[in-house]
Write a structure and sequence with these properties.
The chain is an alpha+beta fold. Helix content is 71%, strand content 6%. The strands form 2 sheets. The protein has a 4-stranded antiparallel β-sheet with strand order 5-3-4-6, with helices on both faces. The chain starts with a helix and ends with a helix. 16% of the residues are buried.
């Protein structure tokens, strides 16, 4: 009885202890679970923040990348445009340099050496007939012969023929434009432009192998060359005709002056001869001697006029300038056979220039043509227009011309005015 009670009491105490231990274990587990949940929540929050930050950074990086791509594309476009513009300018510089070189040596580089503009026109007409014949006989454009449309060779040939006509029309439009707008100094650039047009047509027609034939392209290039040569030769002939007409007008004016002077002196001679006869009849010896001296002067003047008329090289060399029109370092050195050389200067001071020319020197010479030529050779390197030698303007000062005249004209140089008056120009500057 006592043993059973002891056992019962002992089991009761153990059960209570076990329950207390279980309860304590549950509380500890709850505390651990709560701590773990809190730590997990913190980790999840940190992870969310990091992911959010990474997303924002990725979004910002994407925007920056897109902006960088736009800027790179913009730079590429600007680089392409700049490269294209540079190529155009370089082509213009090459053409300009070639033109300047030709001007410096005073010649035009003819591609075809013919006698006159008529010969060039005849050659052009013949070449243009050949060009039309090439187009008429289907030798202007080359294209594929085995092209088919939906299995039809006939339809393929028609398509190729139609596109070939279209390409040829575009090419001819470019060539005709070059012929219409041709200037001799633009020949190189226009030929290059026609070549590029041919290359473009070849690229566009590559599928059907459509291209301008070499024979047709060479013929049209020769047409451009002949057109430039023709225009240059025609301008040279026109300029020569203008120079001839100007020289004829100058000669006619000089001849009219000589005729008027001769007629005036002959009239005076007849008058003094009649007076001399009357004085001799009266026996006035002193008056007769005076009248004979006067007649001798008239006869000498007549002889001088006849000598001037017979010697076409005699005349005046003039040195003139026009500060208002051409600046201080430029003079014109010319020659006239007029009895009154200033009349020629007055003509040059007409409506073509804004101010009158100032005269620095008038030198009479029995070989004025030779003196003018010597001065032109002296200042050949200073000639303003090196292409047209008939233009007599030089970039030199009047003092330089005076030194040259002292060497070439010698005793003929009677008077020289180094400083121009330029009255109209100075008055215009002051007002």
């Amino acid at each position: 009885m006592q043993l059973r009670e002891w056992i019962t009491r002992t089991q009761g105490r153990d059960a209570v202890q076990v329950q207390e231990a279980l309860h304590q274990a549950r509380e500890e587990a709850t505390a651990v679970r709560a701590a773990a949940d809190a730590e997990a929540d913190q980790i999840r929050r940190q992870a969310r923040d990091e992911v959010k930050q990474q997303r924002e950074e990725a979004k910002t990086a994407g925007k920056e990348a897109a902006q960088a791509r736009k800027e790179a594309e913009k730079i590429r476009n600007e680089t392409y445009k700049a490269s294209s513009r540079l190529a155009e300018l370089q082509a213009q510089v090459v053409t300009t340099d070639e033109t300047v070189m030709l001007q410096q040596v005073g010649i035009y580089a003819y591609r075809h050496q013919l006698e006159d503009a008529i010969a060039y026109r005849t050659r052009l007409d013949s070449l243009q007939a050949d060009i039309k014949n090439l187009a008429r006989t289907d030798q202007a454009v080359l294209a594929a012969q085995d092209w088919t449309v939906n299995g039809s060779v006939r339809a393929g040939r028609k398509m190729v023929r139609d596109f070939s006509k279209l390409m040829l029309r575009a090419y001819n439009a470019e060539a005709d434009y070059a012929v219409r707008t041709m200037k001799p100094h633009r020949l190189t650039s226009l030929v290059d432009r026609l070549y590029k047009s041919r290359e473009t047509i070849a690229k566009l027609g590559a599928t059907m192998n459509i291209r301008i034939s070499d024979a047709y392209h060479d013929a049209r290039v020769r047409e451009l060359q002949l057109t430039a040569d023709f225009l240059q030769k025609k301008e040279e002939e026109r300029e020569a005709q203008r120079e001839i007409r100007a020289r004829e007008r100058e000669e006619a004016a000089a001849q009219r002056e000589l005729d008027r002077e001769r007629e005036k002196l002959q009239k005076e001679q007849r008058h003094y001869q009649a007076a001399l006869e009357r004085l001799r009849a009266r026996g006035d010896a002193d008056a007769v001697a005076e009248m004979e001296a006067k007649l001798e002067e008239i006869e000498q003047a007549l002889s001088s006029v006849e000598a001037r008329a017979a010697n076409i090289r005699a005349g005046y060399v003039y040195v003139i300038s026009n500060i208002g029109a051409f600046g201080e370092r430029m003079v014109k050195i010319g020659m006239t056979r007029r009895l009154e050389p200033l009349e020629r200067v007055y003509e040059l001071s007409g409506a073509a220039v804004p101010f009158r020319f100032d005269v620095h020197a008038l030198i009479f010479s029995k070989d004025a043509v030779g003196l003018e030529s010597q001065l032109h050779q002296e200042f050949a390197e200073h000639r303003v227009n090196r292409v047209n030698a008939r233009k007599e303007f030089f970039r030199v000062t009047p003092a330089q011309v005076r030194e040259a005249l002292q060497r070439h004209a010698g005793q003929h140089l009677v008077e020289f005015a180094e400083e121009p008056q330029a009255l109209e120009w100075r008055a215009s500057q002051a007002s």
